[in-house]
Amino acid sequence: MRLSRAAAALLLALSSAGCALESADAGSVVHKRSLVIGVKADQPGLGLKGPDGRYQGFDVDVATYVAGRLGVPPSRLRFRTTPSSAREQALQSGAVDLVFATYSITAKRKTQVTYGGPYYVAHQAILVRDDETGIRNVRDLKGRRICAVTGSNSWKRVTEERKVAAVPVDTPTYGACMDRLTSGQVDAISTDDLILAGLAARGGAKIVNAPFTDEKYGVGLRKGDLAGCEAVNRALTEMYQDGTAAALLNKWFAKAGLEVTTSVPQFEGCS
Amino acid sequence: MTTTRQPPVPAARPGPPARRRGRLRTFARGRWLKTIPGRIRASVALLLALLALMGIVLTVAVGNARQGVQTMGHDAGPQVVATGALYFALSDMDAQVADVLLIGRDHGLGIGHDESLRRYEQRRDAAAQAAVQAAQLAGQDAKRQQNVRDVLNGLGRYEQLAGEAMLLNDQSGHAAGPPPGNVLRVYRQATDLMKLELLPKAYNLTLDSGATVRQSYESKRAAVLSGRAWVVLTAVLVLAALAVAQLYLARGFRRTVNPGLALATLLTLVLAVAAFAQLSAQAEHLRVAKRDGFDSVLSLSRARAISHSAFADESRYLLDPDRADTYEQTYLDKALAVLYVDPGQGKPVNLETYYATLDRDVRGFTPGRARFLGFFGDEAHQVRPAGAASDALGQTLRAYLAVQQNDRRMRELAGRGDRAGAIRLRMGTGPGGAIRAFDDYDRALVSLSETHRRGFDAAIAAGDGGLRGWKWLPLGAALVIAALILAGVRPRLAEFR
């Protein structure tokens, strides 16, 4: 019996080794029964946590759709607030499985994160008061007061990248920017159009449709989860093909008069 | 010795067919195992069963390697690369239209009006052909088929708009520079359709079929490696059983070496070692073909397409002053995708910092230790120093730098209000002209891609060559070993007749 027992043990060991080799995508989001999704909690229209603790917005809806295509129903989804500064860390530590949080794809971040999508290409645009007629593109911001939100780079894209001599006015949040805009303390807010659309929905302001940057909102995955990334991309393709994307974009942003693109964006490629 | 207490293994190879009920009963009771010939027969059956198992495992592993090489080297791999041509052809169509509109009635500027039209049609045919490839690759996948159809439909609409823009442009007879508003309005529709709908879909198609190749690569390579482990395991079992049989016969019959079994042992060992080496080599050929070949060829073809598209953004920048800012931004975005440089903490990312940082990082480049990212960054991290690819990369980077220096000069001229000077530079085909410099860059990039292509072809050829002999080898070797075992045991059994 000794020989056969030894052979059986060897067989078992080798077969488990074989299995480990075959599932190179072990730990991928495609194999998870439930998912934790990192979203923003303070961006109206994209990711906003309500007083009841529920999250809502475009990011939340897109995440729910993609998770559904990955085989995870809403009942097994959990959302978690993930501020901009903590997104890479949250993915690396496994605190969240996926990030849908106005997460712009950049070459630098790609060294730490695998990106699915983008699920939408937002553009930096300008929000002005309803009665404003003098601002038609970014160059018209010269000499005007723009909101400079603490910790945000958006205003620098006007004054530093574009070298338009606008006057930045320090303001703590975009919500406070909106108050200052309507009360006449600033003349314009410039940031991603989807964020502006969320602000504009409060009334009293309009979006100037003169986009001047491309912001690729990607789906953050743990670095190296290529199988997960490819599955996310397939889900996003479907979301655009079956009309869900158009419906969601209209639901969240059409009211603000934003011209949205309802055709699938160019994906970044999984790496 | 433990062989005497081996369990009966009748399933794989039942003993002699039961001719009489009595024999069957004896067999079932296991009493036959108590006789010496019974034990020998059982050991032989076990040996042959193990041998058959080894043969099957080896055949499956070799089959997996064969399929892997076939998919990567002959089916999906080359087809995916061909669909990459779709994106390039589409984006170059729009580039030719932009040039035609920019030069207006000055038909001799740049590569010339007629040559642009000829290229436009050539690219359109190439796009249609690549779409057919993509459709074949999509197979039964309804969503991908839909994607291909969307691209073809969009292409029809695009051609209509582009044709209209070029017709209005001819009618206006404007001098080189921005065409009249009615031309621009139609062209904007065309180029937006291209940028927002056609190009993304074409790009995603290639990515998606590339994903299929990656998955098949991962699973085939893993199967080859685990097949290799299984071959080792089964070979060890066969060898152990042969050794035990050898010892048993040596003791029981007072003979030193059974030549049949000894030869069988030697042959099994040789087969196992050869199989191990061959499967390892196959896994490595697959890896080289995928990582150094396929991946690089695909990402360089994307870099090339994006570079052409960026170059066309220069024409669009000169063509449409109202949108000049947007086209400058898309130019920067594309440049960053091809070669990303980090201007440093606190510095804005704009063309000005891009030129400066690019100059520093490209001049200070040594293979394997690049400071930049993007497609060329990936390439720089991957190439081995002092190889053909490394030389080609160095040349490509220098040519890329020249292209960016022209871009800087062109924007300076345009910014100063010298639009005619900017157009002359941008459309220049002679020494110092932007088109000349871009063509040099394009050639360098293509030859860089060629070095990877050759690496890919070599790896696939090595894979094919290595497998050629292995179609019948596992079966043949197993049969020979089986014959040797039987030949070795037969005389001993004969002693009991």
Please describe what this structure looks like:
The complex is a heterodimer of chains A (271) and B (497). The radius of gyration of chain A is 22 Å and the shape is elongated. The relative contact order of chain A is 0.18. In chain A, helix 2 packs across helix 7. Chain A has two domains: 29-122 and 216-256, Periplasmic binding protein-like II (D-Maltodextrin-Binding Protein, domain 2, 3-Layer(aba) Sandwich), CATH 3.40.190.10; 124-208, D-Maltodextrin-Binding Protein, domain 2 (3-Layer(aba) Sandwich). In chain A, strands 5-1-6-13-7 form a five-stranded mixed sheet. The model of chain A is unreliable at 16-22 (pLDDT under 50). Chain A has 271 residues and is α/β, with parallel strands linked by helices. Chain A has helices spanning 2-22, 58-69, 87-93, 154-161, 174-182, 193-200, 226-241, 244-253, and strands spanning 35-39, 42-43, 47-49, 55-56, 77-81, 98-99, 113-122, 124-129, 145-149, 167-171, 188-192, 205-208, 215-222. Chain B has 497 residues and is mainly alpha-helical. Chain B has one domain. Chain B is 80% helix and 0% strand. Chain B has helices spanning 21-29, 36-74, 76-103, 113-138, 142-172, 181-253, 259-319, 324-338, 351-363, 374-382, 388-415, 419-426, 434-468, 473-494. In chain B, helix 7 (259-319) packs antiparallel against helix 10 (374-382). Chain B is elongated. The two termini of chain B are 25 Å apart. The chains are: A alpha/beta (271), B mainly alpha (497). The interface between A and B is large, with 50 and 52 residues. Chain B: Keywords: Membrane, Transmembrane, Transmembrane helix. Chain B: This is Secreted protein. Chain B: It comes from Actinomadura macrotermitis. Chain B: The chain crosses the membrane at residues 40-62, 229-249, 261-281, 472-489. Chain B: Residues 1-21 are annotated as: Disordered.
